[in-house]
Specification:
The protein contains 16 helices and 5 strands. By secondary structure, the protein is mostly helical. The chain is elongated and about 115 Å long.
Protein backbone atom coordinates (compact mmCIF):
# COMPACT_ATOMS: atom_id res chain seq x y z
CA UNK A 1 0.00 0.00 0.00
CA UNK A 2 2.87 2.39 0.77
CA UNK A 3 4.26 2.23 -2.76
CA UNK A 4 0.82 2.79 -4.23
CA UNK A 5 0.12 5.92 -2.20
CA UNK A 6 3.58 7.24 -2.90
CA UNK A 7 2.42 7.58 -6.50
CA UNK A 8 -0.95 9.04 -5.49
CA UNK A 9 0.87 11.73 -3.49
CA UNK A 10 1.76 13.39 -6.80
CA UNK A 11 -1.95 14.06 -7.37
CA UNK A 12 -2.28 17.36 -5.42
CA UNK A 13 0.46 19.02 -7.50
CA UNK A 14 -1.87 19.18 -10.49
CA UNK A 15 -5.09 19.07 -8.49
CA UNK A 16 -6.10 22.73 -8.98
CA UNK A 17 -5.66 22.37 -12.73
CA UNK A 18 -7.67 19.16 -12.95
CA UNK A 19 -10.43 20.53 -10.71
CA UNK A 20 -10.80 23.55 -12.97
CA UNK A 21 -11.02 21.39 -16.08
CA UNK A 22 -13.96 19.52 -14.52
CA UNK A 23 -15.81 22.68 -13.47
CA UNK A 24 -18.91 24.38 -14.84
CA UNK A 25 -19.42 27.46 -17.01
CA UNK A 26 -19.87 30.13 -14.28
CA UNK A 27 -17.27 32.87 -14.22
CA UNK A 28 -15.18 33.35 -11.12
CA UNK A 29 -17.50 32.53 -8.19
CA UNK A 30 -15.40 31.12 -5.36
CA UNK A 31 -18.31 29.13 -3.95
CA UNK A 32 -18.90 27.23 -7.21
CA UNK A 33 -18.35 23.45 -7.02
CA UNK A 34 -15.12 23.99 -8.98
CA UNK A 35 -13.35 26.96 -10.63
CA UNK A 36 -14.56 27.38 -14.25
CA UNK A 37 -12.37 26.13 -17.04
CA UNK A 38 -12.57 29.36 -19.04
CA UNK A 39 -11.69 31.97 -16.38
CA UNK A 40 -7.95 31.91 -17.10
CA UNK A 41 -5.30 29.90 -18.85
CA UNK A 42 -4.08 28.83 -15.41
CA UNK A 43 -7.05 27.47 -13.38
CA UNK A 44 -5.05 28.01 -10.17
CA UNK A 45 -5.37 31.81 -10.69
CA UNK A 46 -8.26 33.80 -9.12
CA UNK A 47 -10.40 35.08 -11.99
CA UNK A 48 -11.32 38.24 -9.98
CA UNK A 49 -7.69 39.39 -9.73
CA UNK A 50 -6.27 40.63 -13.08
CA UNK A 51 -2.81 40.56 -11.56
CA UNK A 52 -3.01 36.81 -11.57
CA UNK A 53 -3.54 36.49 -15.32
CA UNK A 54 -2.05 33.21 -16.61
CA UNK A 55 -0.07 35.05 -19.30
CA UNK A 56 1.96 36.91 -16.66
CA UNK A 57 5.57 35.62 -16.83
CA UNK A 58 5.65 35.84 -13.04
CA UNK A 59 3.22 32.93 -12.97
CA UNK A 60 5.61 30.58 -14.80
CA UNK A 61 4.73 27.08 -13.54
CA UNK A 62 8.34 26.01 -14.01
CA UNK A 63 9.35 28.15 -11.02
CA UNK A 64 7.77 26.69 -7.85
CA UNK A 65 8.65 29.79 -5.86
CA UNK A 66 6.52 31.96 -8.18
CA UNK A 67 3.56 29.56 -8.42
CA UNK A 68 0.51 31.59 -7.25
CA UNK A 69 -1.26 28.34 -6.26
CA UNK A 70 1.09 28.17 -3.26
CA UNK A 71 -0.42 31.38 -1.81
CA UNK A 72 -3.91 31.26 -3.34
CA UNK A 73 -6.96 31.03 -1.06
CA UNK A 74 -9.97 29.54 -2.85
CA UNK A 75 -12.35 30.64 -0.11
CA UNK A 76 -13.69 27.24 0.94
CA UNK A 77 -14.61 25.95 -2.51
CA UNK A 78 -15.98 22.39 -2.22
CA UNK A 79 -14.79 19.63 -4.53
CA UNK A 80 -16.09 16.04 -4.50
CA UNK A 81 -14.06 13.17 -5.92
CA UNK A 82 -15.55 9.71 -6.43
CA UNK A 83 -13.94 6.37 -7.15
CA UNK A 84 -14.25 2.63 -6.65
CA UNK A 85 -11.80 2.44 -3.71
CA UNK A 86 -14.01 1.95 -0.65
CA UNK A 87 -12.11 0.12 2.08
CA UNK A 88 -11.43 2.28 5.11
CA UNK A 89 -7.59 2.34 4.87
CA UNK A 90 -7.67 3.37 1.20
CA UNK A 91 -10.36 6.04 1.59
CA UNK A 92 -8.64 7.42 4.69
CA UNK A 93 -5.26 7.57 2.95
CA UNK A 94 -6.72 9.36 -0.08
CA UNK A 95 -8.55 11.95 2.00
CA UNK A 96 -5.53 12.54 4.25
CA UNK A 97 -3.30 13.12 1.22
CA UNK A 98 -5.77 15.47 -0.45
CA UNK A 99 -6.52 17.44 2.73
CA UNK A 100 -2.84 18.02 3.43
CA UNK A 101 -2.65 19.87 0.13
CA UNK A 102 -6.12 21.43 0.00
CA UNK A 103 -6.57 22.92 3.48
CA UNK A 104 -3.78 25.55 3.20
CA UNK A 105 -5.42 26.76 -0.01
CA UNK A 106 -8.95 27.06 1.40
CA UNK A 107 -10.32 24.09 -0.54
CA UNK A 108 -12.70 21.55 1.00
CA UNK A 109 -11.99 18.37 -0.96
CA UNK A 110 -13.60 15.03 -0.14
CA UNK A 111 -13.07 11.61 -1.70
CA UNK A 112 -16.10 9.30 -1.59
CA UNK A 113 -15.59 5.59 -2.20
CA UNK A 114 -18.56 3.98 -3.91
CA UNK A 115 -19.24 0.23 -4.09
CA UNK A 116 -21.62 0.91 -7.01
CA UNK A 117 -19.30 3.44 -8.60
CA UNK A 118 -19.66 2.17 -12.18
CA UNK A 119 -23.46 2.10 -12.12
CA UNK A 120 -23.65 5.50 -10.44
CA UNK A 121 -21.12 7.21 -12.72
CA UNK A 122 -23.23 6.08 -15.70
CA UNK A 123 -26.35 7.62 -14.18
CA UNK A 124 -24.56 10.83 -13.17
CA UNK A 125 -22.87 11.39 -16.53
CA UNK A 126 -25.96 10.57 -18.59
CA UNK A 127 -28.05 12.82 -16.31
CA UNK A 128 -25.65 15.74 -16.70
CA UNK A 129 -24.71 15.76 -13.01
CA UNK A 130 -21.24 14.21 -12.81
CA UNK A 131 -18.97 14.62 -9.78
CA UNK A 132 -16.27 17.30 -9.92
CA UNK A 133 -13.63 14.59 -10.38
CA UNK A 134 -13.91 10.81 -10.67
CA UNK A 135 -11.08 8.29 -10.63
CA UNK A 136 -11.56 5.57 -13.25
CA UNK A 137 -9.89 2.29 -12.16
CA UNK A 138 -9.75 0.97 -15.74
CA UNK A 139 -9.63 2.78 -19.10
CA UNK A 140 -12.52 0.76 -20.56
CA UNK A 141 -15.32 2.82 -19.01
CA UNK A 142 -13.53 6.04 -19.92
CA UNK A 143 -13.24 4.78 -23.50
CA UNK A 144 -17.00 4.11 -23.55
CA UNK A 145 -17.70 7.67 -22.43
CA UNK A 146 -15.32 8.99 -25.09
CA UNK A 147 -17.14 7.03 -27.80
CA UNK A 148 -20.47 8.38 -26.55
CA UNK A 149 -19.23 11.99 -26.62
CA UNK A 150 -19.10 12.55 -22.85
CA UNK A 151 -15.33 13.09 -22.66
CA UNK A 152 -13.63 16.33 -23.71
CA UNK A 153 -9.90 17.00 -24.04
CA UNK A 154 -8.24 18.70 -21.07
CA UNK A 155 -6.79 22.16 -21.48
CA UNK A 156 -3.17 22.30 -22.62
CA UNK A 157 -1.94 23.67 -19.30
CA UNK A 158 -3.66 20.81 -17.44
CA UNK A 159 -2.01 18.26 -19.72
CA UNK A 160 1.35 19.97 -19.21
CA UNK A 161 0.93 19.87 -15.43
CA UNK A 162 0.04 16.17 -15.51
CA UNK A 163 3.05 15.37 -17.69
CA UNK A 164 5.32 17.32 -15.34
CA UNK A 165 4.04 16.02 -12.02
CA UNK A 166 2.23 12.70 -12.46
CA UNK A 167 3.80 9.26 -12.54
CA UNK A 168 4.02 7.91 -16.10
CA UNK A 169 1.86 4.95 -15.08
CA UNK A 170 -1.11 7.32 -14.73
CA UNK A 171 -0.79 8.56 -18.31
CA UNK A 172 -1.55 6.94 -21.68
CA UNK A 173 1.06 7.49 -24.36
CA UNK A 174 2.29 10.51 -22.41
CA UNK A 175 -1.05 12.38 -22.51
CA UNK A 176 -3.98 12.71 -20.16
CA UNK A 177 -6.79 12.55 -22.72
CA UNK A 178 -5.61 9.88 -25.17
CA UNK A 179 -8.39 7.44 -24.32
CA UNK A 180 -9.16 6.71 -27.95
CA UNK A 181 -5.67 5.34 -28.54
CA UNK A 182 -5.96 2.61 -25.89
CA UNK A 183 -7.37 -0.86 -26.53
CA UNK A 184 -10.79 -1.45 -25.04
CA UNK A 185 -10.48 -4.33 -22.55
CA UNK A 186 -13.60 -5.97 -24.02
CA UNK A 187 -12.46 -5.63 -27.62
CA UNK A 188 -12.92 -8.88 -29.62
CA UNK A 189 -15.38 -10.20 -27.01
CA UNK A 190 -19.16 -10.60 -27.26
CA UNK A 191 -19.56 -8.00 -24.50
CA UNK A 192 -19.95 -4.25 -25.00
CA UNK A 193 -19.51 -3.14 -21.40
CA UNK A 194 -18.68 -4.33 -17.92
CA UNK A 195 -22.39 -4.42 -17.10
CA UNK A 196 -22.85 -6.96 -19.91
CA UNK A 197 -20.18 -9.15 -18.32
CA UNK A 198 -21.79 -8.83 -14.90
CA UNK A 199 -25.20 -9.70 -16.35
CA UNK A 200 -23.74 -12.78 -18.01
CA UNK A 201 -22.11 -13.90 -14.75
CA UNK A 202 -25.36 -13.40 -12.87
CA UNK A 203 -27.23 -15.46 -15.46
CA UNK A 204 -24.71 -18.29 -15.18
CA UNK A 205 -24.90 -18.18 -11.38
CA UNK A 206 -28.69 -18.34 -11.56
CA UNK A 207 -28.45 -21.34 -13.87
CA UNK A 208 -26.03 -22.99 -11.46
CA UNK A 209 -28.69 -22.92 -8.75
CA UNK A 210 -30.84 -25.17 -10.90
CA UNK A 211 -28.10 -27.77 -11.32
CA UNK A 212 -28.64 -31.11 -9.64
CA UNK A 213 -25.72 -32.76 -7.89
CA UNK A 214 -24.70 -36.20 -9.12
CA UNK A 215 -25.27 -38.85 -6.45
CA UNK A 216 -22.43 -41.10 -5.29
CA UNK A 217 -23.98 -44.01 -7.18
CA UNK A 218 -23.96 -42.02 -10.41
CA UNK A 219 -26.67 -41.55 -13.03
CA UNK A 220 -27.98 -44.07 -15.55
CA UNK A 221 -26.68 -43.69 -19.09
CA UNK A 222 -29.86 -42.18 -20.48
CA UNK A 223 -29.85 -39.53 -17.75
CA UNK A 224 -26.22 -38.65 -18.46
CA UNK A 225 -27.00 -38.31 -22.15
CA UNK A 226 -30.05 -36.13 -21.45
CA UNK A 227 -28.10 -33.73 -19.19
CA UNK A 228 -25.21 -33.61 -21.65
CA UNK A 229 -27.64 -32.87 -24.48
CA UNK A 230 -29.14 -29.93 -22.54
CA UNK A 231 -25.66 -28.55 -21.76
CA UNK A 232 -24.64 -28.68 -25.42
CA UNK A 233 -27.85 -27.04 -26.60
CA UNK A 234 -27.58 -24.30 -23.96
CA UNK A 235 -26.54 -21.61 -26.44
CA UNK A 236 -25.97 -21.04 -30.14
CA UNK A 237 -22.54 -22.47 -30.84
CA UNK A 238 -20.53 -25.31 -32.37
CA UNK A 239 -19.32 -27.75 -29.72
CA UNK A 240 -16.23 -29.79 -30.56
CA UNK A 241 -16.16 -33.12 -28.69
CA UNK A 242 -12.65 -34.59 -28.59
CA UNK A 243 -12.27 -38.25 -27.55
CA UNK A 244 -8.70 -39.36 -26.90
CA UNK A 245 -8.05 -43.14 -27.13
CA UNK A 246 -11.47 -43.52 -28.73
CA UNK A 247 -10.78 -47.20 -29.42
CA UNK A 248 -10.68 -47.83 -25.66
CA UNK A 249 -14.13 -46.26 -25.31
CA UNK A 250 -15.50 -48.61 -27.94
CA UNK A 251 -13.81 -51.63 -26.36
CA UNK A 252 -15.20 -50.82 -22.91
CA UNK A 253 -18.75 -49.67 -23.64
CA UNK A 254 -19.43 -50.63 -27.24
CA UNK A 255 -20.33 -48.20 -29.97
CA UNK A 256 -23.66 -47.00 -28.51
CA UNK A 257 -21.99 -43.85 -27.14
CA UNK A 258 -20.56 -42.97 -30.54
CA UNK A 259 -23.92 -43.63 -32.15
CA UNK A 260 -25.73 -41.29 -29.77
CA UNK A 261 -23.13 -38.57 -30.17
CA UNK A 262 -23.17 -38.84 -33.95
CA UNK A 263 -26.98 -38.52 -34.03
CA UNK A 264 -27.15 -35.46 -31.77
CA UNK A 265 -27.22 -32.90 -34.56
CA UNK A 266 -30.60 -34.12 -35.77
CA UNK A 267 -32.10 -33.35 -32.34
CA UNK A 268 -30.23 -30.16 -31.39
CA UNK A 269 -32.07 -26.89 -31.96
CA UNK A 270 -29.52 -24.18 -31.03
CA UNK A 271 -26.12 -25.76 -31.49
CA UNK A 272 -24.18 -28.32 -33.49
CA UNK A 273 -21.50 -30.84 -32.53
CA UNK A 274 -18.36 -32.03 -34.25
CA UNK A 275 -16.51 -35.12 -33.04
CA UNK A 276 -12.75 -35.67 -33.13
CA UNK A 277 -11.51 -39.14 -32.21
CA UNK A 278 -7.84 -39.91 -31.53
CA UNK A 279 -6.50 -43.45 -31.67
CA UNK A 280 -3.32 -45.40 -32.29
CA UNK A 281 -5.38 -48.26 -33.74
CA UNK A 282 -5.96 -47.51 -37.40
CA UNK A 283 -8.41 -50.41 -37.84
CA UNK A 284 -10.72 -49.90 -34.87
CA UNK A 285 -13.42 -48.42 -37.15
CA UNK A 286 -13.58 -51.75 -39.00
CA UNK A 287 -15.35 -53.22 -35.98
CA UNK A 288 -17.95 -50.48 -35.63
CA UNK A 289 -21.59 -51.09 -36.42
CA UNK A 290 -22.34 -49.99 -40.01
CA UNK A 291 -24.99 -47.56 -38.70
CA UNK A 292 -22.38 -45.87 -36.52
CA UNK A 293 -19.89 -45.58 -39.37
CA UNK A 294 -22.59 -44.12 -41.57
CA UNK A 295 -23.61 -41.56 -38.91
CA UNK A 296 -20.02 -40.54 -38.24
CA UNK A 297 -19.16 -39.90 -41.88
CA UNK A 298 -15.58 -39.80 -40.70
CA UNK A 299 -12.56 -38.36 -42.43
CA UNK A 300 -9.31 -40.02 -41.42
CA UNK A 301 -6.13 -38.05 -40.90
CA UNK A 302 -3.00 -40.12 -40.25
CA UNK A 303 -0.15 -38.47 -38.34
CA UNK A 304 3.28 -40.07 -38.71
CA UNK A 305 5.34 -40.71 -35.55
CA UNK A 306 7.41 -37.84 -34.23
CA UNK A 307 10.89 -37.69 -35.66
CA UNK A 308 13.96 -36.74 -33.62
CA UNK A 309 13.73 -33.03 -34.53
CA UNK A 310 10.10 -32.78 -33.49
CA UNK A 311 10.80 -34.60 -30.24
CA UNK A 312 13.68 -32.24 -29.62
CA UNK A 313 11.36 -29.23 -29.99
CA UNK A 314 8.90 -30.77 -27.53
CA UNK A 315 11.63 -31.51 -25.00
CA UNK A 316 13.16 -28.05 -25.26
CA UNK A 317 9.78 -26.49 -24.53
CA UNK A 318 9.16 -28.71 -21.49
CA UNK A 319 12.74 -28.38 -20.25
CA UNK A 320 12.37 -24.60 -20.21
CA UNK A 321 9.60 -25.04 -17.64
CA UNK A 322 11.01 -27.96 -15.63
CA UNK A 323 14.70 -27.10 -15.38
CA UNK A 324 16.70 -24.05 -14.44
CA UNK A 325 18.78 -22.37 -17.16
CA UNK A 326 22.03 -24.23 -17.92
CA UNK A 327 20.88 -27.25 -15.89
CA UNK A 328 21.13 -29.50 -18.98
CA UNK A 329 24.30 -30.10 -20.95
CA UNK A 330 24.01 -29.62 -24.70
CA UNK A 331 23.81 -33.34 -25.50
CA UNK A 332 20.98 -34.27 -23.10
CA UNK A 333 17.93 -33.26 -25.14
CA UNK A 334 19.27 -34.56 -28.50
CA UNK A 335 20.07 -37.92 -26.89
CA UNK A 336 16.62 -38.22 -25.27
CA UNK A 337 15.02 -37.37 -28.62
CA UNK A 338 17.16 -39.91 -30.45
CA UNK A 339 16.33 -42.74 -28.02
CA UNK A 340 12.60 -41.98 -28.23
CA UNK A 341 12.67 -41.66 -32.04
CA UNK A 342 14.09 -45.17 -32.27
CA UNK A 343 11.02 -46.49 -30.44
CA UNK A 344 8.12 -45.37 -32.64
CA UNK A 345 8.61 -41.64 -31.98
CA UNK A 346 6.85 -41.74 -28.61
CA UNK A 347 6.81 -38.28 -27.00
CA UNK A 348 5.87 -39.77 -23.62
CA UNK A 349 8.98 -41.96 -23.75
CA UNK A 350 11.14 -38.92 -24.52
CA UNK A 351 9.65 -37.00 -21.59
CA UNK A 352 10.08 -39.99 -19.27
CA UNK A 353 13.73 -40.20 -20.25
CA UNK A 354 14.31 -36.51 -19.55
CA UNK A 355 12.46 -36.65 -16.23
CA UNK A 356 14.28 -39.79 -15.07
CA UNK A 357 17.66 -38.35 -16.11
CA UNK A 358 16.91 -35.28 -14.02
CA UNK A 359 15.96 -37.43 -11.02
CA UNK A 360 19.19 -39.42 -11.32
CA UNK A 361 21.26 -36.23 -11.53
CA UNK A 362 19.49 -34.93 -8.42
CA UNK A 363 20.32 -38.13 -6.52
CA UNK A 364 23.95 -37.77 -7.57
CA UNK A 365 23.92 -34.16 -6.26
CA UNK A 366 25.44 -32.91 -9.51
CA UNK A 367 25.06 -29.36 -10.77
CA UNK A 368 23.67 -30.39 -14.15
CA UNK A 369 22.10 -33.26 -16.09
CA UNK A 370 24.60 -35.04 -18.35
CA UNK A 371 24.70 -37.61 -21.12
CA UNK A 372 25.56 -40.37 -18.62
CA UNK A 373 22.35 -39.65 -16.73
CA UNK A 374 20.31 -40.09 -19.92
CA UNK A 375 21.93 -43.46 -20.65
CA UNK A 376 21.35 -44.58 -17.06
CA UNK A 377 17.75 -43.42 -17.37
CA UNK A 378 17.30 -45.46 -20.56
CA UNK A 379 18.54 -48.59 -18.80
CA UNK A 380 16.44 -47.90 -15.69
CA UNK A 381 13.25 -47.45 -17.69
CA UNK A 382 13.85 -50.74 -19.52
CA UNK A 383 14.42 -52.57 -16.23
CA UNK A 384 11.37 -50.98 -14.65
CA UNK A 385 9.27 -51.99 -17.62
CA UNK A 386 10.35 -55.67 -17.40
CA UNK A 387 9.77 -55.70 -13.65
CA UNK A 388 6.31 -54.23 -14.10
CA UNK A 389 5.38 -56.79 -16.75
CA UNK A 390 6.52 -59.70 -14.56
CA UNK A 391 4.74 -58.26 -11.50
CA UNK A 392 1.40 -58.18 -13.34
CA UNK A 393 1.65 -61.75 -14.69
CA UNK A 394 -0.83 -64.35 -13.36
CA UNK A 395 0.52 -66.74 -10.73
CA UNK A 396 0.72 -69.64 -13.21
CA UNK A 397 2.77 -67.56 -15.65
CA UNK A 398 5.14 -66.55 -12.88
CA UNK A 399 5.66 -70.25 -11.97
CA UNK A 400 6.38 -71.12 -15.59
CA UNK A 401 8.87 -68.24 -15.85
CA UNK A 402 10.53 -69.32 -12.57
CA UNK A 403 10.85 -72.88 -13.85
CA UNK A 404 12.53 -71.65 -17.04
CA UNK A 405 15.04 -69.63 -14.99
CA UNK A 406 15.85 -72.67 -12.82
CA UNK A 407 16.37 -74.83 -15.90
CA UNK A 408 18.70 -72.18 -17.36
CA UNK A 409 20.71 -72.02 -14.17
CA UNK A 410 21.08 -75.82 -14.09
CA UNK A 411 22.22 -75.93 -17.70
CA UNK A 412 19.17 -77.79 -18.97
CA UNK A 413 18.38 -76.91 -22.58
Amino acid sequence: MRKRWHKIAAFPVAFALVAAACGGDDDGAADDPAPPVDDADDPADDADDPADDADDPADDADDPADDPADDEDFGGVEIVITGSERDDPSVGAINATLQAWAEPRGIDVTFIGDADWEANINTQVEGGNPPDISIFPQPGKLAEFAEEGFIFPLADDVVAAIQDHWDAGYQIDGTANDVGESDHPLESTPFDSRSDVVARIERLEADKESFEEVPMTGWPTDRVYSVFFDAVDYDERVVVIMLDEIDKLVEKSGDDTLYNLSRMNSDLERSRVSIIGISNDLKFTDFLDPRVKSSLGEEEIVFPPYDANQLRDILEHRAGVAFKPSALTDDVIPLCAAFAAQEHGDARRALDLLRTAGELAERDSTDDVREAHVRDAQEKIEIDRVVEVVRTLPQQSKLVLFAIILLEKNGVH
